[in-house]
Amino acid sequence: MLALMIAAAVSVPPQTPPVVPSAVACRPSIVGTVRTITLQSKVFPGERKLRVWLPPGYEASGQRRYPVLYMLDGQNAFDTCTGYLGQEWTLDEVATRLITGGVIPPIVIVGIDNAGAQRANEYLPYADPFTPANGQMEGDRMAAFLSGDVMPAVAASFRVSSDPSEIGVGGSSYGGIATLHLALTNPQLFGKALIESPSLQVGNGRMLRDAADAATLPDRVYIGMGGEEAAIPPGAPVPIRQRIARINEGLVVGARRLRDRLADALAPPAVKLLIDPAAHHGEAAWAKRLPAALTFLFGRDAAARRAVVR
User: Fold this and answer.
1) 173 Rama class: left (phi>0) / alpha (psi -120 to 50) / beta
2) Which of 215, 249, 270, 275 is 20 to 30 A removed from 221 (C-alpha atoms)?
3) H helices present in 215-273, as ranges
4) How does residue 301 score in pLDDT terms, banded at 50, 70 and 90?
5) Which of 188, 142, 136 is nearest to 162 (CA)?
6) 225, 199 Cβ separation under 8 angstroms
C-alpha cells in the first residue's frame, strides 16, 4: 500500500493526456506558435508527435539559427488541453516572458510526446523498485532516438542550432532520469540539462553511483526538487505520514548528493540545485521553478547563472 502511494506521488506521473468530455470544449492555453511533426521512429515502435514552439520573431529572422531545448513528456509542455489533468509546464508563457524581457535569447522548444503505457520502459535505464517491473527497460536507446530520429526531423523543418553548446534536453520525474542518463552517457549530444524532480530511487541507487563515475557532462546542469515531492494524504495514519516524510527527506538528500557528484566530475559542469521546500511532484511545481531553470541554462546575465548553488 505504502509503496504504491509513494509510487503514485514520485514515480509515475503523466502517461497519457486526460480525455476532455465532448460536452466541454477545451480552450488551448498556448502562447505563441506551436507546430507539430508526426515522427515515425526507427528506434521505438509507432509514431511520436513533436510539438515545436517558435520564439517571437522567428518568422522574420531570415536564416538565423536558434538555440533549442528538447523536452520529454511533450504533451505537458505548452497546453492545458493536452497536459496531464489539465496541467502544463507553461514553457511557452515563461519563455516568452524571459525572451521579451531580455533575460534569455530567443530559443526554440521541442516537446517530445511520451509513449503512454510504454513511457517508463522508454525513459528508464533501470527498474524502479517502488513499482512492479513491466517489460524491458530501454532507457539506453533514448540517445539513438534523440540523435537519430528527433533532432534530424526538427533540423529538417526548423532553423535550430547544431552546436551542442546551444542544445538542451530536459524532463521531470522519469523524464528527469532519462535526461540524467543521457547527460551521463552521451554528454557530447547537448550542452544543457534540465532535470526536475528526478526519481532517484530508479535502479536502487545506481543513478547516483553512475553520477559518481562521470568524467565529463553537458556544460550546464540544472536540478530542481521539491521538499514534499510525495504529498501526505489527508487523514493518513501517523506511521505512514512519518514514512512519507522520510521518503521526502531522502529525495532532497539524494538531489544534493547528485549535485555534489556532478560537480566533482573530472571535467565538471556548472551545476545549479534548487530545492523548493513545500513543493509537491507535478507540473505546477515545475512551472514555478522554470524561470530559474531557463535563466540558468540559457540566460544572458552571468550573475543569474551562478555555477554552483549550495
Assistant:
1) left
2) 249
3) 238-263
4) low
5) 188
6) no
What residue has cell string 518568422?
A: 59
Q: Classify residue 260 as exposed, middle or buried by CB count within 10 Å of its CB (0-12, 13-18, 19+).
A: middle
Show the DSSP H helices in 37-189 as ranges.
91-100, 119-123, 142-144, 151-157, 174-185
- Take residue 240 and report the three cell numbers written for it: 505512514
Residue 24 buriedness (CB in 10 A; 0-12 / 13-18 / 19+): exposed
Burial of 105 (0-12, 13-18, 19+ CB in 10 A): middle
Enter the DSSP assignment of 202. G
- Considering the segment(s) 2-11+29-305 as one domain, its CATH architecture is 3-Layer(aba) Sandwich (3.40)
pTM reported for the whole predicted model: 0.91
Domain ranges of the chain: 2-11+29-305
pLDDT of residue 25: 79
What is the overall mean pLDDT for the chain? 89
Nine-digit cell string for 164: 551542442
What is the distance between the alpha carbons of residues 113 and 150, in angstroms, rounded to a whole number? 11
258: alpha, beta or left? (left if phi > 0; alpha if psi -120 to 50): alpha
Alpha-carbon distance values, 252 to 88, 227, 266 (Å): 24, 6, 24
HSE toward the beta carbon, residue 134, CA cutoff 13 A:
11
Cβ neighbourhood burial of 12 (10 Å; 0-12, 13-18, 19+): middle
Alpha-carbon span 100 to 121, nearest angstrom = 38
Cα gap 79→101, rounded to integer Å: 22
Whole-angstrom distance, CA of residue 222 vs CA of residue 247: 22
- Pure H helices in the chain: 2-10, 91-100, 119-123, 142-144, 151-157, 174-185, 206-212, 238-263, 283-298
Helix (H, G, I), strand (E, B) or coil at 233: coil
Residue 272 in this model has a pLDDT that exceeds 50: yes
C-alpha cell at 91: 514553457
